[in-house]
Amino acid sequence: MDTKRTSFGALLLVIVLWLADPLQAKSMTVTATAYNSVVAQTDSTPHIGACNKPIESKRNVIAVSRDLFEMGLNCGTKVKVHGVGEFVVLDRMHDRWERRIDIHMGKKLGKAVAWGERKVRISW
């Protein structure tokens, strides 16, 4: 009896996953870099993000590439960066980047350099 229940449960899970619309998936692997609130890395207002919100005093802020923005990672969206923490989208990246996030590190240049470039899984 337990084997039948387990098999039925597994079959049900497969059917649910098969019917799930892949366009509704809200998780993916992206490249993650880091940036600082300095004119050399942003624009003349490094403390204001592209979402027109101050980012200097906020913690756990990310900028997202424009393709991710169009996928629903827009201003104010909360994003989980697996293994790192929870973030909020308050900035956008230059349009040359795709499938990329940029983690805000305030003015700590060494921290951003130490982060480097990594592949991470995000969910929203």
Structural features, described:
- With 124 residues, the protein is an alpha/beta fold.
- Helix content is 24%, strand content 29%.
- The protein has helices spanning 2-19, 66-70, 109-115; strands spanning 27-35, 61-64, 78-81, 85-92, 100-104, 118-123.
- The protein has a 6-stranded mixed beta barrel.
- The model has no long low-confidence stretch (mean pLDDT 85).
Question: What value does the average pLDDT take?
Answer: 85
Share in β-strands: 25-35%
Compute the number of helices: 3
Helix content: 10-25%
Topology:
Layout: H1 2-19, E1 27-35, E2 61-64, H2 66-70, E3 78-81, E4 85-92, E5 100-104, H3 109-115, E6 118-123
Parallel strand pairs: 1-5, 2-4
Antiparallel strand pairs: 1-6, 2-5, 3-4, 3-6
Characterize this entry briefly.
The chain has helices at residues 2-19, 66-70, 109-115; strands at 27-35, 61-64, 78-81, 85-92, 100-104, 118-123. With 124 residues, it is an alpha/beta fold.
Comma- or semicolon-separated keywords:
124 residues; alpha/beta; elongated; 24% helix; 3 helices; 6 strands
